[in-house]
Amino acid sequence: MNDALRVMYVDDEPDIRMIVEFSLEDEPDMTLLVCDGGPAAIAAAPAFRPEVVLLDVMMPGMDGPSTLQQLRTLPELADARFAFVTAKVQAQEVAHLRSLGAVAVIAKPFDPMTLAEQVRNLGKDGHG
Question: Per the database entry, which stretches of residues form a coiled coil (predicted)?
Fold first, then answer.
């Protein structure tokens, strides 16, 4: 087994962050870093070098798309795969989020039991 998949999850909702931690922190093939917003993610990303970044779309101050735009400028994240996590999953919104550079859109509420597998698939081939 190669190195653990480095996953960053960015969400302003403490309850959702807790569910993600519960879902992913015990996965032996993943290393998880949870951030409470865009600025925290941008500060932590260069050192953590996430391979998969899951972003909440609607966050106060700096939303998911703005955070994605900033993270994309970091050389350490040149090969990272980005996915949005949102309750807004109409086809038009999903197409828009993909046009921003996301490889997948995960619907909220997500199933905590299948989240790890979805993230693994993002790490492998980029389709969630």
Answer: none
